[in-house]
Amino acid sequence: MPHSRRHFLAAAPGAAGLAMLASPALARHATLEHRAADIARELKADKRGPADTADDDAFWSQVARAFTIDRSVINLNNGGVSPSPGFVQEAMKRHLDFSNTAPPPYALWQVLEPQKEGTRRALAQQFGADAEELAITRNASESLQVLQQGLDLAPGDEVLTTTADYPRMLTTFEQRERREGIRLVRFQIPVPASDPAEIVRRFEAHITPRTRLILCSRVVFLTGGALPVREICDLGRGRGIPVIVDAAHSFAHLDERISDLGCDFLGTSLHKWLFAPHGTGLLYVKRDRIKDVWPLMAAAEKQTDDIRKFEEIGTHPAANHLAIAEALTFHDGIGSSRKFARMVHLRDLWAHTLLDHPRHASRVNLQTSLEPGLAGGIATVDFEGLEPRELQSWLWSTRRIFTVAIADGAETPEPLRHNVRGLRISPSVYTTPREIERFVDAIQHALDHGVA
Predict the structure, then answer these.
(1) DSSP helix/strand/coil, 137
(2) Are 136 and 152 in contact (CB under 8 A)?
(3) Which residues partner with 112 through β-bridges?
């Protein structure tokens, strides 16, 4: 007689029994994974604050040894996606091995999926939110599109954002324009964005009686400039307009928590600055607003007020989500304020060297403010006489330095143009001062001799 699914699960072995099915490699994974807690413990034992450790290369060498990166190349595009530490990778492998060694329906749905609740609670504790307000997603785009697609809008309703917001998020609203007849309103922000009050004034100036939603980046992906999101959220709340915060470049980078922003909605990736597995993200929805947002994939009516309705995507790997916990342990060991200070230190190391050079300074055009509070470790720089794409290609082909070129949008009509041009430079906590020096030397060579 065929067994029912319920009968099979009832008869399935417990977690201890399933462990016996695991491969011997799992023991090796577990041993290597202990390094996350070990390194975090060593780092936390150092009680010095951010000012004392920002330029202490011995301290940051302890952090760097957690990564398995190839040092023959220099990655200065961590803003795209970051490598994960070795023990995060090992945690993923352990969970994935278990998923494929034990019966997958049991391993995935009965053992591993419930463990995700621990990751959810750890994220909430670390970043200042209620666990019932956090959904674990695959990236910032998915998180933000849950909000962009899930909030009701009617024909003629306006969505307000800037020309410097992320292209995929602009495309999402453009599709709703074509499909539903809403209107996307975009305006330019100054480059560099050095006056927070002016940013708020421009948002306020573009609000109309038809404005129903605001999209705002906490850190602009083009330049790394930090926008005054708290004030913009307050502005929206005062007008009854919800604000979606794109935190892809601020989360686990700037020294702040979700609760500091005063927002109702936020989306971010975890594979940039938290160093979590590739393909992990986070969605924050304030508890009393969950019911107002439709999920991207259908959920049962009983889940209307449940944050987990946004995780209804069908069968998916549990390994990515569970390994986030190892990245959280690492982040906590470093300390948010020390991490931020190191990132700013590395940014200033290359920026000030180029800006203070007696022969080259006049050709260096920084697109990012270096004033405290107006940016983090990301900055974009343009060099007179050097085309960004050609310079990017030359740096990679001749120096094995990986950067990203930002075009100025000259082909776009002026009102919709982002007006940023240059190389976006985003080092990370594993980047060494010697690597920054190699980048600066390469730029100085290009300024003197060109890139032909």
Answers:
(1) strand
(2) no
(3) none
Classify residue 384 as exposed, middle or buried by CB count within 10 Å of its CB (0-12, 13-18, 19+): exposed
DSSP 80-124: T-PPPPHHHHHHHHHHHHHHHHS-HHHIIIIIIHHHHHHHHHHHH
User: Any long-range contacts for 350-358 (C-beta under 8 Å, 24+ apart)?
Assistant: 350/425, 350/436, 350/439, 350/440, 351/379, 351/381, 353/440, 354/381, 354/440, 354/443, 354/444, 357/444
Tell which residue, 191, 227, 224, has the closest CA to residue 80: 224
Residue pair 402/435 in contact (Cβ under 8 Å)? The answer is: no
Instruction: Tell me the CA end-to-end span of the chain in Å, nearest whole number.
Output: 76
Rounded to whole angstroms, the Cα distance separating 98 from 120 reads 21
Q: Please, is 359 exposed, middle or buried when counting C-beta atoms within 10 Å of its C-beta (0-12, 13-18, 19+)?
A: exposed
Residues of the chain by 3-state class (helix, strand, coil), percent to 5: 50, 15, 35
DSSP state, 178?
H
> Can you tell me whether residue 70 is helix, strand or coil?
coil
3-state secondary structure (DSSP) of residue 160: strand
- For residue 272, give the 3-state DSSP assignment: coil
What phi and psi, each to the nearest 5 degrees, are found at residue 149? -90, -25
331 C-beta neighbours (distance < 10 Å), count: 21
Q: Contact at 8 Å (CB) between 147 and 377? A: no
Read off the pTM. 0.91
Q: Of how many residues is the chain composed?
A: 452
Three-class secondary structure of residue 371 per DSSP:
coil
d(CA 17, CA 27): 16
Q: Per-residue pLDDT tens for 153-207?
A: 999 999 999 999 999 999 999 999 999 999 999 999 999 999 999 999 999 999 9
DSSP label at residue 54 = T
Strands 364-366 and 379-383: antiparallel
Single out the residue of 425, 272, 449 nearest to residue 350, CA to CA.
Answer: 425
What distance in Å separates the CA atoms of residue 253 and residue 77, rounded to the nearest whole number? Answer: 14
Of 205, 206, 200, 209, nearest to 186 by C-alpha is 206
Question: In whole angstroms, how far apart are CA 205 and each of 185, 408, 415, 444?
Answer: 12, 25, 15, 42
AA letter at 23: S
Q: What is the pLDDT of residues 11-49, one digit of tens each?
A: 333 433 333 334 444 444 445 555 677 888 888 899 999
